[in-house]
UniProtKB/TrEMBL annotation:
This is Exodeoxyribonuclease 7 small subunit. Heterooligomer composed of large and small subunits. GO terms for cellular component: cytosol; exodeoxyribonuclease VII complex. Its main location: cytoplasm.
Length: 75
């Protein structure tokens, strides 16, 4: 079974933890490479989530800057 997808804040928080560990510089090379790969994956995930959000926002705002009508789920 695959792991559930993280939301943006969770992915960003994990990425920040990875960066802190790498910046500490006291890891064996193999662990550093593993963390680097994990960080790249988290970075890509955050980037994709931001692109999706930007596209959603662009749909809500027309070219003149006016907000279009939209429904908020659950209301």
């Amino acid at each position: 079974m695959s792991e559930p997808k993280m939301n943006f804040d969770e992915a960003l928080s994990q990425l920040e933890q990875v960066v802190r560990q790498l910046e500490a510089g006291n890891l064996p090379l193999e662990r550093s490479i593993e963390l680097y790969k994990q960080g790249m994956s988290l970075s890509n995930e955050c980037h994709q989530k931001l692109q999706k959000i930007e596209a959603e926002v662009a749909k809500l705002v027309d070219s003149s800057g006016n907000v279009t009508d939209f429904e908020i789920p659950g209301e």
